[in-house]
């Protein structure tokens, strides 16, 4: 909290602290609040836990990484929503609160869609981490096999990751980006192959915005008489705090130092950012998450590719895989040890959903549960990554021989419970599923989505 506070106020030395009522970020109940972790899918990457090495007696024999692109500029439609609010605020006759005074000289500085330096740096660091963690698996003949979906920000993310991997190895190993999968065709790293899939979270987000938006709209309208902001503008301005901040981080930024928070951030309270994060949770839950119609089946193609790699056998899939790519050892080898795939948030969410991670009962659109596991600020930040490790163990636990092959999954370093394949809940063997039990648990993918894929074309 201290870090977030200090940065927030320090970043605006032009705004005298004495002019500001620091009610905005004071909340005795949440003294661990960090602003940048309340932006949902627009939060920059942070490790939610520290990585836990496998239990004694276990060796990692294969690693599969699927990685969201790093921090980016807003999309075209997000830019429209953002500019609507900014223009209305700038058209006000005057400001009654000094927090808005910066708007007298503010010129909107953001581009669209592309990766920003922070996104590139966090992807580079991710590549460094992968090398440090898994270097014992790398040999001159066996370097990571890397694929990316074709959108620029995803390709740039993958290249920064490979550059980080190379740098960490003192340039001994430079994994090429071997396959760029076109988003115009069958692409297991994008959710573009299902014509009847309609991103359906709009209704749920609007219901929630109608709950938390009005008091904010009223306050900002009272600070900017004549602006006539509506609730939708508030959502845009909250997004702008996140996008403007991540875009303001320069190359060479020290990851331990405070973020240069946007002057739009102090317009909102901690509770309001928590509401904004919930809006992001609802958005993803009701699109390719568990609440979305035909969301889960979008993760089947990648999951079947994962099963193929884990078992070193050809891909069996009749959903979004490109059979031309996946039947050719040059574009889909089965004899590597580390695989890294680069994608977007919606398809990665679908993969979580296919596998059965983050089981979450229906999210209420009027009342968030504060202890929910479904928090996009942890599970789907920019540069989020899921890592599937295959482990070969030669060990005894409390006198019992548990030598076997296992699978475990980390999302942003958090070991997933994998209750669906019988993993232990606690202790050093927490989250390890017996290999065959894991394969068995993936029946939905192995059966091409139990009839859901056909609904994409019906
Ligand atoms: C994988 O197979 C290819 C083609 O047979 C071969 O050229 C390559 O050396 C193999 N790589 C490893 C790591 O075994
Ligand atoms: C990393 O990403 C940045 C921003 O998109 C890009 O300009 C740069 O070329 C990338 N680095 C590499 C090594 O590709
Ligand atoms: C890279 O070089 C540094 C400095 O010479 C050395 O400490 C480190 O062990 C090297 N790392 C690898 C992976 O070779
Ligand atoms: C499959 O991949 C090949 C090779 O990249 C490409 O030429 C083809 O258009 C793709 N087909 C589909 C349906 O995506
Ligand atoms: C692309 O996907 C469609 C739908 O699943 C499938 O019918 C087609 O064979 C696939 N094409 C390739 C080249 O894999």
Task: Walk me through the topology.
Elements: H1 2-10, E1 58-68, H2 76-90, H3 117-134, E2 145-149, H4 152-168, E3 177-181, H5 202-223, H6 231-247, H7 270-285, H8 300-311, H9 323-326, E4 338-343, H10 345-355, H11 376-379, E5 385-393, E6 396-397, E7 400-401, E8 404-411, E9 414-415, E10 433-434, H12 435-441, H13 443-446, H14 452-455
Parallel strand pairs: 1-4, 2-3, 2-4
Antiparallel strand pairs: 1-5, 5-8, 6-7, 8-9, 8-10
Helix pairs in contact: 2-6, 3-4, 5-6, 5-7
User: How many strand elements?
Assistant: 10
CATH architecture of the domain at 37-74 and 115-200 and 278-455: 3-Layer(aba) Sandwich
Mean pLDDT metric = 92
Distance between the termini: 50 Å
Rg: 23 Å
CATH superfamily of the domain at 37-74 and 115-200 and 278-455: Phosphoglycerate mutase-like
Bound molecules: 2-acetamido-2-deoxy-beta-D-glucopyranose
How many helical elements? Answer: 14
Order of helices and strands: HEHHEHEHHHHHEHHEEEEEEHHH
Write a structural description:
Pfam families: His_Phos_2 (PF00328). It comes from Mycena metata. Its main location: secreted. With 458 residues, the protein is α/β, with parallel strands linked by helices. It contains 14 helices and ten strands. Strands 1, 2, 3, 4, 5, 8, 9 and 10 form an eight-stranded mixed β-sheet that branches. The chain has a two-stranded antiparallel ribbon with strand order 6-7. It starts with a helix and ends with a helix. The site of one 2-acetamido-2-deoxy-beta-D-glucopyranose has 2 residues, from loops.
Keywords:
about 450 residues, alpha/beta, Rossmann fold, eight-stranded mixed β-sheet, two-stranded antiparallel sheet, 14 helices, 10 strands, about 35% helix, binds 2-acetamido-2-deoxy-beta-D-glucopyranose, glycoprotein
